[in-house]
Specification:
11% strand, 2 strands, two-stranded antiparallel ribbon
Length: 105
Amino acid sequence: MERKIDKALASVGLKADEIQAMEIETQPRFGDAAGFGAVDTGHMLSSVGHQIDRQNKQVITGNAAPYAIYVTMGTHKMPSRPFMQNMINNYADDFKAVVEDAMRD
């Protein structure tokens, strides 16, 4: 059973990385009339990552770019682009399916 849980946690972490990267890539660029393509230098995209906490059976996902919080929350000059919240709100069923698949094997 522990092996299945480890597999599920790892699978969720990889899925979170994949979805977070997709969310970053599709966020509107501030001031861009075209509306999409928020990736400029690629630093935030390459800063996607997760950690597995086996003791508490959880995956901690995030972004290590120092400005990710400003992109997510916005500033007085820039609207928020909540890629992490979108990941949580829009992909819960995907995460559930990943866990179910891992636990079934």
